Amino acid sequence: MQFHICSIVIFCFWTVYLMIAYWTHKQQICSMPAPFHGDSLGLWSNTITLVNIISALLYFITWYKVKKIRGAHFFKNNTKIFTSIAIIIVVEVTSWFISSILIDLSEIYVITERQPPFHYVACLFVSSGIAVKCVVYY
Fold it and tell me: Quick check: pTM over 0.70?
C-alpha cells in the first residue's frame, strides 16, 4: 500500500517538475500534452507508457492468480472477477497506453508544426477512457 502511494506521489511530482523545468513562453493550442514544452513531452509520454506497461502486467498477474485458484469455493463469481479485470484493462490501461504511444510516435515521425492536431487525435483515447470510467466502475 505504501509503495503504491509513494509511486503515485513520485509520478505527480515528476509531472509537475517536467512542466516547470522545461517551461518556455509561447503561444500554444490547448491539448493534453500542451503544458509540456521541449523534451518534457517525450519524457512524460515515455513515463506514462512505462506506467501503463507495468499496470497491464500487474492486472495480468492478478487475473492469472485469480484464474489459478478458480476451483476455490469462495470464488463463486469467477466470471464477474475476470470480466471486471478485463474491462478495466481495456478501458483504463489501453486508452492511456494508446494515447501515450501515439504521442511518442508523433515526436519521432510528425513534424513539429503538425503535432498539435495529431495530439488531439491521440488524446481521444484518453478522453474516451475518462468518459466511460463511471460506467466501468459501476
Answer: no
Radius of gyration of the chain (CA): 18
Beta strands in the chain (DSSP E): none
pLDDT at position 17, please?
A: 92
Give 107: exposed, middle or buried? Use CB within 10 Å, 0-12, 13-18, 19+. middle
Q: How far apart are CA 69 and CA 39, in angstroms?
A: 46
Q: Which residue has the cell 517551461?
A: 23
The residue type of 71 is: G
Interval 38-79: pLDDT, tens: 788 778 878 888 887 888 788 788 777 777 776 555 555 566
Which stretch of DSSP H or E encloses residue 3?
helix 2-21
Distance CA 117, CA 111 (A): 11
